[in-house]
Amino acid sequence: MDALDIARWQFGVTTVYHFLFVPLTIGLSALVAILQTVWYRTGDERYLRLTKFYGKLLLINFAMGVVTGIVQEFQFGMNWSDYSRFVGDIFGAPLAIEALLAFFLESTFLGLWIFGWDRLPKRLHLASIWAVAIGTNLSAYFILAANSWMQHPVGYRVNPETGRAELTDFIAVLTNKVTLATFPHTLAGCFLVAGSLLLAVSLWHLVRRPHHPDAAAHRAAVRFGGWVSLLAAAAVVISGDIQSKIMTEVQPMKMAAAEALYDTESPAPFSVFTIGSLDGSREIIAIKIPYLLSWLATGDVNGEVKGINDLQAQFAAQYGPGSYVPMIPVAYWSFRLMIGLGVVAALIAAWALWAQRRGRIPTSRWLVRAGVIMPLLPLAANTFGWIFAEMGRQPWIVYGEMLTRDGVSRAVTTGEVLTSFTAFTLIYAVLAIIEVHLLIRYAKAGLPDLTPVAEPAPETDDEDRPLAFAY
Amino acid sequence: MDLPTIWFLLIAVLFTGYFILEGFDFGVGMLLPVLGRTDRERRVLINTIGPVWDGNEVWLLTAGGAMFAAFPEWYATLFSGFYLPLLVILMALIVRGVAFEYRTKRPELSWKARWDKAIAIGSWIPAVLWGVAVANIVRGVPLDANHEYVGGLVDLLHPYALLGGLTTAALFLTHGALFISLKTVGDIQQRATRFARRSGVVTAALAVAFLGSTMAIRTSPAAIAFTVVAALALLGALVANRLHRDGWAFTGTAVTIACAVAALFAALFPAVLPSTMDPAGTLTIDNAASTDYTLTIMSWVAVLLTPVVLAYQGWTYWVFRKRIGVAHIPDD
Questions:
Q1: B185 touches chain A (CB under 8 A)
Q2: What phi, psi does A453 have (nearest 5°)?
């Protein structure tokens, strides 16, 4: 392995890891905001306790998303400095705007929300968690705009003197059709994770202790989480369909790789399951649904879908000799796992909602088991989705403009990248164990008791009252 | 004033904001084992920065993003060249950030002690290494004609850079102690005031030595003026601390940090990263900058958003303006 390979592994590991926390932060901040809004509107204490309970899980998770995010911003310059030089004129702007518009909002108002229970009027305190939710969702837009530009560069020209990409139309970058399709798809994936978490944790409590005083609150959370999951899953499917048609148009090789479609076909079938030779060049067993791929890719059951061999020949003619084919087994399986795991999560959500319809108390142990693993499914689906999106466009770092191998830092030695990769992997592994341990501990602990807001005793004035919340 | 100059100033402002704000929360973290004798006292210290530290750190992310957007060559050369120090800073910031949130999540004292250590070490490391990094930027590093860093780790660890590291560490320590004496009551506050009185003298000596040797390497009239104001502000902070004017003392170190950063950037201008090898390798605001189109858009974004950010972040400090002491810390 040389510095390039290690830098790629590091990017893969740190990005996948970062995106295990981000979806929960994005989805759960909004769901907690909704729970708190219900409490604010109805005064129903169950919702206050749910807010505090899921708020705590949000905070445990939020910290990890924040600290792993700093690495992401630094990593472009550290490991991919030639890439940074090439794209800085375009790529830096959404990153800077993300920090200025979204990160300040979410981190400042999160501090206000955590510590502000007794410092802010109820209304402002509620507004704080909404500001956090808006901030996290906005940040997704700008980082996806940056990523989408790498997938499908628009609004730029390459300056022949400097050899660098230069921004010519910022609005085009922000309204890139890939961004517009990826943003709802990614957000829906995030809400599927967050809905699953509510469903999993509250279902576990509900089935274990159906007659506990908190059962009613957990039942409400199961219903809420279940519906959020189902709606999110529907949104994932619809946005994914739009996205795949755009992908076929702007990155035909990725679509062909997703299907391991070697020869151009019209109509093209969708392969449900294929065992091919290890290098992916030949299929051994395959189950196929006729016409489906043509419809997914082009919206027409007889549409032509280009095959890998034709595209390779076309790219070689256009960009010069070399392989323009991504790793086919990775693209093929990550695409299927993304879809399959998402579908299973939606089915579990539907099952849980059905089992507790009209006041029924779910009793099935199998449902609880399925429910408890449910949050892992969309998390894994998100991961496979990103692996597909990023590995499916290789060998390009900027599609059609710059090869990944040309973007790596020349000033950094193999030893340095290896040090960094090892250090991040180790520290991330340790922190992952701690975070999962804490999430499970606090999820099991159940809804918190409401500490009655102590009436200040006559001799103590407001200044001496203990803080409602302290680290 | 042309756009690259404006963005040079804006990045100086962002780093100034970062060092003033995260400077005191680094200081609080560094002082955690020194001033916090019991768990409850350590909780008082952590809670002085609890609601704000995360927002303070976003100044770094914004500064980094702004550097990437406005001076991609600077961002690329600097971040790949200062690879290992930045790696260590990142690790420290990761552990430290998680520690604030996780230390109270289990009741055992051994659990808390471990996170306390993480907070202290995670605050010391960046406090020293930011100084090392800044000193290297001002002094210059070996760059070839393609602006590519050609030195190694050892080239970044010369005496001047180490002096820079000690200076920022001492400055943040004193700044943090003054913040604690502004935000707490009781024993902790008295200890912090006393600590700042002593550390302030060391800080002043280091700062004079560091800024003095900076002016010997690279200087300009503005840089000298800022250096003088920085020294006077530090002196003022120490006097105010003796007079128990906590607000003025803290303002004093804040102005010191602002003027020290300003002095360094003024000395650097118009270079952003001088080369000690091939003069053609020197990065300046002109050869490192993005296009005018990008800088124009970014300027509008900055003009529209920065006042809003300053307003709500300032408001947060107002909401949590109350001093706290051990009596305010609820039971676990």
A1: no
A2: -65, 110
